[in-house]
């Protein structure tokens, strides 16, 4: 048994850590969020140059290897800086969709552009009433000759305002909740009939509601076999759930560290508040939560890198996301409470970590959803 | 033992209901029901209507404009207001500074300040906390030095809610730096238009400038604005804090929110063809908080029954603050859970009056994450919940 990183993983961690530490302070992040594009093109190019955009991809696709542990390493460090660049939306989710479902030709043209930083993608899968059920798809794709015609609406399409192409999950056959009949399409973001209601989310990430009105898509833009996209989508969203869980581990580490530091320096009643036993125990509990969250994320990442069955892998991710969810609630709320008023202000980073972990709770299946899934698997 | 209303009380309840239906402005109700941001004018307009009826300040002694109601009537009034969605008057004047003025102020001060508080002509804000005096409020450092007929005030107050709209601020200031820290504090009323006062906004997690820092740079305050005796301010402030804790349980508001939440959950798809309300895990969480609010309601009723008119509630009221704020915060979490990812878009403009763009997300649920973030303040302000537990330990349990 060995929980230490390989030399390559160690180098990867060092390089992301160094970037976050030296180039991604809180004020820089704030300026990036307020910028027109909502992320830094300069940093995105740097991510490409340093090879980080290849991390989610297998060697045969030209990537770094695509292991879940590698992804965990990167995401944890991103979590510490609350990195806003669309690594998750473009590389992990959309790149993952192409890698899981795409033809050799699609992989070759699109993945290389993702990895060299020249292509931005967004995956449109969730709908207003689908909640976390990936099989609940109301958006339709009707075959007409050599084209498909898309109609419907998607919500929470992360990175959509900046995306060159959208990967759209739509139903080519079957009833609303059927597992079969779900297909994925590559759609030009500027295609006729595509409209967007863009926004900045509470955590600073960009997203949009995207509407499709008689959008004509050439048949060759089908991603994978018609009607057969669901299991690929499930695998990708599980990987995203693992990725944000690892990100949360990094964010919670910062919350704990900052809270302990504050408790050591903030004086009330003539002493540092960290000397109060009532508060010491609460910080000890936060530490326990951080450790358990880290442990279960490692478990899930390692499971994804084995030959275990799909169900076993899904169960491991459900366990991680659910347990991390519980930790995020506790660590997030306690960090704010122990800091007091200053942590509910926009000026302190603590509140922003709290917002990010709260966002993570609401992405890719919340705690209750994952608990139910774990129980059923 | 009897918790039923008498025929008289039921008649009163009906009277309040009829009043609200007839007099609470429709446009304000529309805003409240749809989570649209209320403006200062909405509060002023509604309070003037309440004041015409004589119902602004049920807790004040009758001679100053109180209603003379029994504790049960006060409870009924607060409950009906809350369930209807009618706002309570802004607390800083009616509930915070006024009890200090009528309890410890002189006749001149009562005449000068109380009528304008009732009529909402003058808005007040609170100058208590300082950057280095939060839970340890008595360590405050803002000074007031006597100079002829004036005090000269220097220092910084923080977390001043609605300070940007306030005409006056009531402050705790240090008038004797040689005494024990609680004993050198005075209670001073300051006109916000006095030269030397600067208000700087503090943005909270929902991106709204709800609170402020208020800086005092050689601000000259006439000595007649001192309440009671010099160096007795801490005693007055403690009384004020217990008044602040009445209605802090927020039971009517929580009940209204729970009722709406149940409706929303029934209408929210679970993603598998059913509704979220049919999800046993969610239903159980909702039931838990409903039961908590019910227990809280009866704890509050017992406190009310024990409090004779005009007398401040005892240290037991700390229970109401702790449980009330935690229940509210848990309800906020459940709203966010119903909204799920619909809570994430941050589009504050769509919650302002007159917004006519296309709306992102689903109705008022779309604001649920921001409400959750913002209301984390509730377990921090008004004496943090940790301080309330200290009060229970010391003053109730004798530890």
In summary, what is this structure?
The complex is a heterodimer of chains A (377) and B (399). Chain A is α+β, with helices and mostly antiparallel strands.
Structure description:
The complex is a heterodimer of chains A (377) and B (399). In chain A, 51% of the residues lie in helices and 16% in strands. With 377 residues, chain A is an alpha+beta fold. Chain A has three domains: 7-119, Acyl-CoA dehydrogenase/oxidase, N-terminal domain (Butyryl-Coa Dehydrogenase, subunit A, domain 1); 122-228, Beta Barrel (Butyryl-CoA Dehydrogenase, subunit A, domain 2); 231-376, Up-down Bundle (Butyryl-CoA Dehydrogenase, subunit A, domain 3). In chain A, helix 8 packs antiparallel against helix 9. Chain B is of the alpha+beta class and 399 residues long. Chain B folds into three domains: 7-89, Acyl-CoA dehydrogenase/oxidase, N-terminal domain (Butyryl-Coa Dehydrogenase, subunit A, domain 1), CATH 1.10.540; 122-231, Butyryl-CoA Dehydrogenase, subunit A, domain 2 (Beta Barrel); 245-396, Butyryl-CoA Dehydrogenase, subunit A, domain 3 (Up-down Bundle), CATH 1.20.140.10. Chain B has twelve helices and eight strands. In chain B, a hairpin with a 2-residue loop joins strand 2 and strand 3 (150-157). Classes of the chains: A alpha+beta (377), B alpha+beta (399). At the A-B interface, strand 6, strand 9, helix 9, helix 10 and helix 11 of A face helix 11 and helix 12 of B.
Under CATH, the topology of the largest domain in chain A can be stated as: Butyryl-CoA Dehydrogenase, subunit A, domain 3
CATH class of the largest domain in chain A: Mainly Alpha
Radius of gyration of chain A: 21 Å
Largest interface: A-B, 48 and 49 residues
Enumerate the strands of the largest sheet of chain A in spatial order, edge to edge or round the barrel.
1-4-5-8
Q: What is the total tally of β strands of chain B?
A: 8
Model regions low in confidence, pLDDT < 50 over at least 5 residues of chain B:
none
SS field, number of helical segments of chain B: 12
Q: Stretches of chain A where pLDDT falls below 50 for ≥5 residues? A: none
Mind describing the biggest β-sheet of chain A?
A: 4 strands, mixed
* Helix and strand sequence of chain B: HHHHHHEEEEEEEEHHHHHH
Please state how the strands of the largest beta sheet of chain B are arranged side by side.
1-4-5-8
Beta-strand percentage range of chain A? 15-25%
CATH class of the largest domain in chain B: Mainly Alpha
CA(first)-CA(last) distance of chain A: 27 Å
Count the helices of chain A. How many?
11
Into which percent range does the helicity of residues of chain B fall? 40-55%
Instruction: Please identify which CATH superfamily of the largest domain in chain A we are dealing with.
Output: Butyryl-CoA Dehydrogenase, subunit A, domain 3
> How many distinct domains of chain A?
3
What sort of overall outline of chain B do the alpha carbons produce when their principal axes are compared? globular
Mean pLDDT of chain B: 91
């Amino acid at each position: 048994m060995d929980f230490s990183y390989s030399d390559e993983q160690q180098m990867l961690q060092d390089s992301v850590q160094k970037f976050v530490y030296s180039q991604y302070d809180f004020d820089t992040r704030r300026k990036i969020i307020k910028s027109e594009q909502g992320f830094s093109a300069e940093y995105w190019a740097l991510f490409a140059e340093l090879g980080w955009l290849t991390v989610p991809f297998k060697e045969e696709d030209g990537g770094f290897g695509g292991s879940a542990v590698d992804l965990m390493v990167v995401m944890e460090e991103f979590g510490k800086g609350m990195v806003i660049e669309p690594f998750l939306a473009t590389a992990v989710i959309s790149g993952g969709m192409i890698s899981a479902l795409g033809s050799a030709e699609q992989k070759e043209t699109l993945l290389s552009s993702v990895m060299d930083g020249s292509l931005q993608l967004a995956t449109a899968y969730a709908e207003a009433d689908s909640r976390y059920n990936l099989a609940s798809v109301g958006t339709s794709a009707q075959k007409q000759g050599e084209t498909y015609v898309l109609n419907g609406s998607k919500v929470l399409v992360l990175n959509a305002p900046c995306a060159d192409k959208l990967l759209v999950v739509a139903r080519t056959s079957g009833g609303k909740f059927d597992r079969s009949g779900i297909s994925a399409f590559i759609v030009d973001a500027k295609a006729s009939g595509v409209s967007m209601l863009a926004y900045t989310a509470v955590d600073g990430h960009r997203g949009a509601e995207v509407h499709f009105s008689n959008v004509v898509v050439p048949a060759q833009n089908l991603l994978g076999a018609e009607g057969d996209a669901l299991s690929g989508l499930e695998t990708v969203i599980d990987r995203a759930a693992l990725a944000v869980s690892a990100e949360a581990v990094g964010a919670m580490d910062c919350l704990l560290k900052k809270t302990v530091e504050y408790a050591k320096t903030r004086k009330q009643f003539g002493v540092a508040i960290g000397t109060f036993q009532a508060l010491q125990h609460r910080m000890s509990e936060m530490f326990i939560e951080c450790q358990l969250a880290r442990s279960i994320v490692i478990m899930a990442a390692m499971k994804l890198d084995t030959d275990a069955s799909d169900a076993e892998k899904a169960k491991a991710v459900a366990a991680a996301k659910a347990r991390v969810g519980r930790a995020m609630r506790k660590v997030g709320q306690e960090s704010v409470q122990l800091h007091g008023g200053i942590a509910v202000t926009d000026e302190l980073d603590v509140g922003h970590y709290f917002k990010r972990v709260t966002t993570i709770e609401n992405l890719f299946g919340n705690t209750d959803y994952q608990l139910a899934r774990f129980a059923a698997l | 033992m009897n918790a039923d209303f008498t025929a008289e009380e039921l008649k009163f309840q009906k009277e309040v209901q009829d009043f609200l239906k007839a007099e609470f402005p429709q446009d304000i109700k529309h805003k409240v029901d749809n989570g649209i941001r209320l403006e200062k004018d909405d509060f002023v307009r509604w309070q003037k209507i309440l004041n015409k009826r004589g119902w602004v300040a049920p807790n004040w002694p009758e001679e100053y404009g109180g209603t003379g109601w029994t504790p049960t009537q006060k409870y009924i009034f607060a409950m009906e207001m809350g369930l209807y969605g009618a706002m309570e008057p802004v607390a800083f004047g009616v509930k915070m500074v006024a009890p200090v003025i009528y309890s410890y102020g002189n006749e001149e001060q009562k005449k000068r300040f109380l009528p304008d508080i009732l009529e909402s002509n003058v808005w007040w804000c609170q100058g208590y906390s300082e950057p280095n005096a939060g839970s340890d409020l008595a360590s405050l450092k803002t000074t007031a030095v006597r100079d002829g007929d004036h005090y000269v005030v220097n220092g910084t107050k923080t977390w001043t809610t609605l300070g940007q709209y306030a005409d006056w601020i009531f402050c705790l200031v240090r008038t004797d730096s040689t005494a024990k820290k609680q004993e050198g504090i005075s209670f001073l009323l300051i006109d916000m238009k006095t030269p030397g006062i600067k208000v700087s906004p503090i943005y909270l997690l929902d991106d709204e400038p709800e609170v402020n820092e208020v800086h005092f740079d050689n601000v000259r305050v006439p000595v007649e604005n001192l309440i009671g005796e010099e160096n007795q301010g801490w005693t007055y402030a403690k009384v004020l804090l217990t008044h602040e804790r009445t209605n802090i349980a927020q039971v009517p508001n929580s009940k209204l929110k729970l009722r709406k939440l149940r409706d929303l959950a029934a209408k929210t798809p679970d993603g598998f063809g059913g509704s979220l309300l049919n999800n046993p895990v969610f239903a159980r969480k909702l039931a838990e908080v409903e039961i908590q609010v019910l227990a809280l309601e009866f704890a509050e009723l017992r406190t009310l029954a024990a409090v004779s008119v005009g007398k401040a509630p005892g240290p037991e009221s700390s229970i109401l603050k702790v449980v009330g704020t935690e229940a509210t915060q848990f309800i906020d979490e459940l709203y966010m859970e119903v909204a799920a990812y619909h809570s994430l878009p941050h589009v504050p403009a769509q919650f302002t009056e007159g917004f006519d763009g296309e709306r992102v997300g689903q109705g008022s649920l779309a604001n649920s994450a921001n409400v959750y973030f913002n209301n984390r303040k509730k377990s921090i302000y008004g004496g943090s919940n940790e301080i309330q537990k200290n009060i229970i330990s010391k003053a109730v349990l004798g530890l």
